[in-house]
Amino acid sequence: MSQSVEVCIIGAGVSGLKAAQHLIKNSKYSAEDIVILEAQDRIGGRLYTDRTSSKLGYSYDLGASWFHDCLTNVLFQHFYSGEDNDVFDISKDGYFDDKPECMFEKDLTGPVSEAKTKVGTIIHDIEKFIELYFLEHLSLEEDKSVKEMVDLYLLKYSKLLTEEEIKYAKVAMRYVELWHGVSWDKLSARYSILQHQGRNLFNAKGYDVIIDWLLKDIPRERILLESPVSKINRHVSNSDKRISVETKNGTVIHCNYLVVSVPLSILSLESSSDYGITWEPPLPETMTAALQKIHFGGLGKVVFEFDSIWWDMNQDRFSMIPKLTQSNEIFEELTSLPEPWSYPATAINYSAVRSKQDGTAAKGGSLVILTQSPLSNYLEKHPHEAWTYFKPMLSKIAVKEMPNEPITTITTEWSSNPYIRGAYGTIFTGDDPVNASIQLSGQVPGAGISSSTIRFAGEHTATEGEGCVNGAWMSGEREANWIMEHAGKSLKPLL
Ligand SMILES: Cc1cc2nc3c(=O)[nH]c(=O)nc-3n(C[C@H](O)[C@H](O)[C@H](O)COP(=O)(O)OP(=O)(O)OC[C@H]3O[C@@H](n4cnc5c(N)ncnc54)[C@H](O)[C@@H]3O)c2cc1C
Q: 281: domain range?
């Protein structure tokens, strides 16, 4: 099959859909001028609300769950303004699950006491130490991992700390692993400390409502599912349609504008890989070099449902501080189940943050646990081992008798999904995320693709809300606006 359109969009995640919806609603193009090619058999990409696996009548967002950074989050602000309340009503459908941290560790019965251990104070001190260090050490070569920076802090300041404080200082910073989805020995300390722009609102209604909202303006027949793109040809001659896009199943789309919204993990693949994209002619070297200097994290989720609630319902979440590691331990791919407490974990008290869909009281309850790579990758491959790993850790939060087994276990599959391959962009030690975002967002005049008719969208191209739904959303809108502004001008697809 071959089709000729004005705009082709690769990827039906939130960024690709937003680009299409914005064009349809605001430009001279109609839905017939646009086609979206999606590799998978479903729409939404990393927004995925599972409404069928629960035995308790709950739904679970296996991708994004929160509106992060509410003070600057465009989606949050839109709904907060009162618009489209039928889609998402902040006061009814959202919940700020940010009661003070309730932390647990292997050798302690009951929660860790802040008053006794000052663990929160020490985390803040290490974060400030990291921030100040990188104000003086500006070059990429001087970057260090979070683990190295904690060692440096202790080398310098352990004389000021009590034995108990040193114990927590050695491991508590590993909480950042659950934000970035990767272990602290790989994570760039320079970029690991998040400057939150406001609180984080839990989306208790399910993120699929945002996808359905976008789909109101995009006729389904404009989205071709199970159409993985394998080749992008740029014709630099003055032919009518200057770009052609080929899928694995033989569809060819000719277009004037192309928005590539596939995840970074796909963009960085060699074209020889089964799921890589061949660029003809190849992508500029500046871009391929930039893609080597940014990585993909592996945040995952494990859901356990129980026929009774045996934890403290007054808490929003339970944080597990990992056991002390050997100073030279490296966290590579796991070939067997690690010992419990090897990695930090956060268990969300889902029963408290999410009311039951049909409004009746649930008979049981559930916990949603966040994990990071390499543990996520292992548990996603071996979901039946998840309970063995977490049972001893969760026993610490029990305030009533804990059941022997959960009634349901659900794990995410992001790392083994060949069209996602992880969770979102993250920054390894020595990476250069600024260059990658300049190359991909085309926002800086004269740099990379600033005047090319091939555009890039997605969380990894965001200059605000990086890694997040709101960043992906804004990147789709950015590229739709660019096309509207440049439509009809004589421009080339990448130089
Ligand atoms: C476990 C997890 C938890 C998260 N939690 C949060 C959170 O709480 N809050 C938040 O804001 N963000 C969160 N995120 C991040 C958020 O989900 C993403 O930033 C956002 O959904 C990405 O949207 P996107 O459009 O950039 O990419 P995607 O949604 O990945 O869309 C890209 C699409 O491209 C398709 N594709 C890939 N290759 C091809 C190909 N060759 N041809 C055609 N199509 C292709 C993919 O199938 C996919 O549908 C989380 C992500 C994960 C995985």
A: 2-48+206-296+429-486
CATH assignment of the domain containing 13:
3.50.50.60
184 to each of 356, 424, 425, 463, how far by Cα in Å? 36, 16, 15, 24
Kindly state whether residues 270 and 305 are assigned to the same domain: no
Closest CA to 130 of 99, 157, 101, 90: 157
Instruction: Say if CB 385 and CB 379 are below 8 A apart.
Output: yes
Residues 308, 404, single domain; the answer is: yes
Instruction: Indicate whether residue 423 lines ligand 1 (CB < 6 A).
Output: yes
482 membership: H or E segment, kind and range: helix 469-486
Q: Rounded to the nearest whole angstrom, what is the distance from the C-alpha of residue 46 to the centroid of ligand 1?
A: 3
Residue 420 lies in a domain: no
Q: Which residue puts its alpha carbon closest to atom 13 of ligand 1?
A: 64
Averaged pLDDT for residues 402-416: 97
Task: Report how far residue 15's alpha carbon sits from residue 426's, in angstroms, rounded to the nearest whole number.
Answer: 18
Each residue of 122-166: pLDDT tens digit?
999 999 999 999 999 999 999 999 999 999 999 999 999 999 899
CA distances to 144, 301, 340 from 373, in Å: 19, 11, 15
Q: Residue 159 burial by CB count (10 A; 0-12/13-18/19+): exposed, middle or buried?
A: exposed
Nearest CA to ligand 1 atom 19: 468
Tokens of 337: 């189940």
Ligand 1 centroid – CA 300 distance (Å) = 13
Let me know: does 416 contact 407? Beta carbons within 8 Å: no
Beta strands in 350-389, from DSSP E residues, in sequence order: 365-371
Residues 92-120 have pLDDT tens digits of 999 999 998 899 999 998 899 888 889 99
Q: Which residue has the tokens 């800086």?
A: 444
Considering the domain boundaries, does residue 93 fall inside one? no
For residue 138, give the 3-state DSSP assignment.
Answer: coil
Nearest to 68 by CA among 104, 94, 35, 106: 94
309 and 180 both lie in a single domain: yes
